[in-house]
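Appendix B. Raw example, untouched.
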Amino acid sequence: MSSQASTAASETIDGFHLVIDALKLNGIDTIFGLPGIPITDLTRMAQAEGMRVISFRHEQHAGNAAAAAGFLTQKPGICLTVSAPGFLNGLTALTNATTNCFPMILISGSSEREIVDLQQGDYEEMDQLAIAKPLCKAAFRVLHAEDIGVGIARAIRSALSGRPGGVYLDLPAKLFAQTMDAAAGKRSLIEVVDPAPRQIPAPDSVQRALALLKGAKKPLILLGKGAAYAQADAEIRELVERTGIPYLPMSMAKGLLPDTHEQSASAARSYVLAEADVVMLVGARLNWLLSHGKGKTWGNEKAMARQFIQIDIAPTEIDSNVAIAAPLIGDIGSCVSALLGGVDKNWAKPPADWTGAIADRKDKNLSKMAETLAKNPSPMNFHSALNVVRNIVKDNPEAMLVNEGANTLDFTRSIVDMYLPRKRLDVGTWGIMGIGMGFAVAAAVTTGKPVIAIEGDSAFGFSGMEVETICRYNLPVCVVVFNNNGVYRGTDVNPSGTADVAPTVFVKNARYEMMMQAFGGVGVMASTPAELDKAMREAVASGKPTLINAIIDETAGTESGRITSLNPSTAKK
């Protein structure tokens, strides 16, 4: 190439590099995705420009990884997919991210507008923007290279501002090859300033909330995953401890304060929800996970007299199911700090009969749990296996815990204590299966810490092929599959008497550990707590990709786990 041609080439920049430069300008250094037309070269160029590109076997799991990365870092996780089918595969993760309030951007290549709009039958033709719009927080399309900076800036701000969520960014194939003057291209890029500004609560709303708390006889603080996302850990802990109010963490808020904290009411959950007279929600919503704030869970008649304080950044969330007596609208850090300003040395701690009653129930329930966990049945059940996991996590509090399943999820939530914030990732608000391996990859890539993924055998099946991804990037992930031969349990029979097994039954005695071995990782079968303990400790210490096939009694487990009431056929039994 002549020097004159080289100079001319250096004066232009293409769409590929504008996308990469715009992401890097905003501190985004990792892309989760799956290469293919028309974004293969984008993945190659991003890697060449120093970005980390984690390539998956299925777009849904890349999207789940991006969502989890967003939750852990307060930066939008990026998922990159091909057009049409790849876009659709990523859409479940995008919608799940929006439902869970995780900041994520799904970037998909697409067919050209002039062909899509006339329905002329282009390769993987689809109006992706129209499909994505109702399923995410915002959706944008970029048609011209000079608008790439604006498009990415708008996507970042939309994902992070107010209530975080998923954003779709549509990039037609022709965009990537467009060129423009390099200097003008650089000027067109936008570094997003303060995408999630503090939102200070109104002083009168703070005083209203404080007055309710002061007058409460049975106050309760309920912490949701929004409180974990906020990273206002010190302020939240100070509020809990200075007020002396018992607290109850939702599953992904576990560890904001150690689950062993004396004010934790987790072991008396049913009692405090039914009895509390004032409940302060911090980053939690009164959705199905909390029985919508009413009904038997909340003590029925007593619920009519209960008053709620709710901290939320979205004013439209207030009164969504029941009346909220004291709404605090603002970011969690600012709201909690404002409340702390009213908790002085003269603050009266909750009445002793309330805290004492909680302590009594905690002691009884924890004693019963200890007796159950001490048993050593053969084969293992959920309790004896999770007693091992409980001890491993206690000894490795920095490790990330990923958890999904039905019974595997429910029992793990109640048995395994967490000690540090944002160390637990699970199915969240939507209760969606299949997040396991994507979340595990994100946790390892984002934090660099060991990851323990506790999976039901059914849940593992949704994303199991991603163990190859874990091996390919040599990630410190230990997957434990609780294998009881089926969905819920492995004992169902086909009522028709034909040769087909029941819909909920899997291949008996499946060798899941061989999947990890196939890709160069460590695969172990564990039939006893001692074997499980040895295998898990070796996996965490070595940092090698490991899958442990934990053999569980196939009769263990209940239909639908703890949400039997949502299953029409079993709820009436």
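End of appendix B.
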